[in-house]
Amino acid sequence: MKQTSPTYEAVNPNIGSSFSCFKFLQNENLKSNFWHYHPEIELVFVGGGSGKRQIGSTISYFTKGDLVLIGSNLPHCGLTNENTRNDYEIVVQFLPDFLGPHIWKTPEMKKITNLLDASKGGIVFGESVKKSLESKILEMYEATSLDKLIKFLEILNVLANTEDFKILNAGNFYIQTQVEDNERINLIFNHVKNKFKEQITLEEVANLANMTEPSFCRYFKKITNKTFTQFVNEYRIIHSMKLLAEKPLSINEICYESGFNNFSYFNKTFKEYTQKSPSQYRKEFKNIIE
């Protein structure tokens, strides 16, 4: 099977602007299904819907929309596809020094500078921030010229001052610092993304990385702060969470559809990851959305 390298995405600012801002309706964003990276920092607001997000080494499941800030050259998949059922998606892309190198050194910009630095690990913002910023983000998209820039800085200021956020890759997952690591780790991630429903052996991924199995294990743990088994299990559990929330399948069917070949192991791993059994998770999720 042919393996794909991480895709470099060339980003050009909107005409007459120092940054890019796009709006996609429902499943119009065609970058959803492949790994890509770019030097631009990316702010993504998903209006409604639910789905999987994979940013760096972290795979997670979002509901009722999403608001994330993805750092420069941090590999990620698009957050929406034909199954997300979102209303719209707004994507803002900007270089770390899009306003020039000097403005970020001023005292007024210190918190925003810290925010952009923290985005190296990927940041997901909480429900309260997401709700409070929806109208501002839509207003920014509709605005032009200087007004657009001012509104964007206001949004960054809100994000820089909130405590309602989580760093997705809080360990040492800064693969953008090494081009060789970027290409190697993304080759592995693509392999897991495409084959997580099948058995994935340590031998095959070590061969992909052109390493011995012991060297690969040490390398993967150093880069992602997880063992390879932990990473694959996490991917499978997130997929099972999506199925539990969205599909009328039995839990036994979901176990095997998510790549687990042992029901007891699936239940044990699911509880370790979520602190709930699959049946508890499904029940609580239904209570939330009803």
Task: Write a brief caption for the model.
The protein is of the alpha+beta class and 290 residues long. The protein contains 10 helices and 10 strands.
Describe the structure.
The protein is an alpha+beta fold. It has 10 helices and 10 strands. It has helices at residues 110-118, 127-142, 145-161, 179-195, 202-208, 213-224, 228-246, 251-257, 263-274, 278-289; strands spanning 7-8, 20-25, 36-37, 41-47, 51-55, 58-62, 66-70, 88-94, 123-125, 165-167. A 6-stranded antiparallel β-sheet has the order 2-8-4-7-9-10, covered by helices on one side. Strand 5 (51-55) and strand 6 form a beta hairpin. Helix 1 crosses helix 3.
Q: What secondary-structure arrangement, pairings included, does this model have?
A:
Elements: E1 7-8, E2 20-25, E3 36-37, E4 41-47, E5 51-55, E6 58-62, E7 66-70, E8 88-94, H1 110-118, E9 123-125, H2 127-142, H3 145-161, E10 165-167, H4 179-195, H5 202-208, H6 213-224, H7 228-246, H8 251-257, H9 263-274, H10 278-289
Parallel strand pairs: 1-3
Antiparallel strand pairs: 2-8, 4-7, 4-8, 5-6, 7-9, 9-10
